[in-house]
Write a structure and sequence with these properties.
With about 280 residues, the protein is of the alpha/beta class. The protein has helices spanning about 1-20, 40-45, 60-75, 90-100, 105-115, 120-135, 145-155, 160-165, 175-185, 195-220, 235; strands at about 20-30, 35, 50-55, 80-90, 140, 225-230, 255, 275-280. It contains eleven helices and eight strands. This is Haem-binding uptake Tiki superfamily ChaN domain-containing protein.
Amino acid sequence: MLKRHLLFFLSLLFLIVSLSGCAITQAIRVEDRERIEVKSMIEELSGTRLVFLGERHDAAAHHKLQLEVLKGLKAQGKQLAIAMEMFEETTQPALDAWSAGKVPEDAFRKVYEWSWRFIPWEMYRDLLLFARDNHVPVVAINAPRDVVQAVGKNGFTSLTDAELARLPTGLDVKASDEYLLSMRSSLPSHGKKGEALRNIAEAQLLRNKVMARKVADYLQLHPGTTVVVIAGGGHARGTGGIAAELGNGISYKIVLPPIPPLGENTVTGADADYLLVESLL
């Protein structure tokens, strides 16, 4: 067991070091497959109130790009809010205090580490400091961790009334065959079949639906705000992601890094508006 944990740590460390040596200066505009500079992409994002910035959680270059987008939108005069997969509703008071500049970094770091325990604070530090220093609201959008785990183990129908009461009302969480197929193609490492795969799919779908509801509610309550969603690539993807659960009437743009099975030759307009180009330094 110790050896397995050590191997995991070394693998994670290798990924962090190697990906920090990547630079993102261009993106592919999916509509016409043209490569454009990141600065031009940010200018093109100015016309939408909702921007999804997908990531691989352990990729430093992705977080640097996210910060660049946030700074670019702020320079355009946008009133911003950052909606983050990394936090769930119970942390919202701490997030509000952080954005107001009322919480020391060491104290807030503990909130982050409780919320997102497997990725080092340093990966998100600059982004969160930007939020604090510019008094940009950070919005917790993820579903309660223990409820998601319960669904992943026994399915959505297994939830108790008390667990359901902690979720937005009226959620219908049933993974379609199409969604299951998407899960198999994008997350082959799960190695699950049958009911086990369906339970995991429902857990992911629950997270998407909860995050979509929270984003939509925030947009409605703050009509002058541009919301930037920070989430893993699978959740930020148009097909089978948060955006698919928003309903009609909410326009958005999606920026994704290359994530299996999406690459320059396979990404479609249903998946993203822009695909980031990763280059080694």
